[in-house]
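Regression check, MRU case 208:
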Amino acid sequence: MNDPRQALIHASRQFYQLGWMAGTAGNLSAKMPDNSFWITASGKQKGKLVAEDFVRISLTGEVLENPSPQNKPSAETSIHQAIYSLFPEANACYHVHSVEAKLVSNFIDHEQLPLPPIEMLKGLGIWEENPKVYMPVFENYLEVPRIAEAIIQRFKQTTPDVPALLIRNHGVTVWASSPEATENHVELAEYIFRYIVAARQAGLNFQH
Ligand SMILES: CSC[C@@H](O)[C@@H](O)C(=O)COP(=O)(O)O
Ligand SMILES: [Zn+2]
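Current build output:
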């Protein structure tokens, strides 16, 4: 995979238009062949990113390339680092802030969100009949490295059912082997969140 910034700019514009990256919310990253990754610089308006709005970081967190001196890496870079260190097959990692993701994170008070047994789960790698799978949920600490550390500690013990995690009252983070697959994963995760909100409004209950 060569410079992924155009794919990140495209995804960001899509997510902005869908209301999932309102203002400066969310951050996107994708790896280069040398395992470094381009990540959105902090505080950029996500509807109009350009190639200079990214910083290239090593897997250990050093800034390797910064096209614009005032750029700082995303405040949530440590979460992307955690995902790349836990899942070497991940080549992109996207984090967005939808209304529905925040709502569903309040439907449970524990660490796992039960996912509805719907066909769309196949897109997240679940090929079972009536699957009983969960999305991991993490607390939204003010210090982002604390969230990253919680992710590392939990996922070192237990592999998540799906390549996605939810931060309570914050948003979803997904990963996959390419920017295109990661964009699909965001769309599927957000579809599932909308379904959960609609199911609740309709009085349906699918707790496992
Ligand atoms: C709109 S504020 C959101 C931020 O606090 C954060 O959660 C976020 O997703 C974007 O942070 P950023 O540093 O621009 O990557
Ligand atoms: Zn965020």
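Comparison notes: The chain has a mean pLDDT of 97. The longest helix spans residues 179-201. No diff flagged against the previous build.
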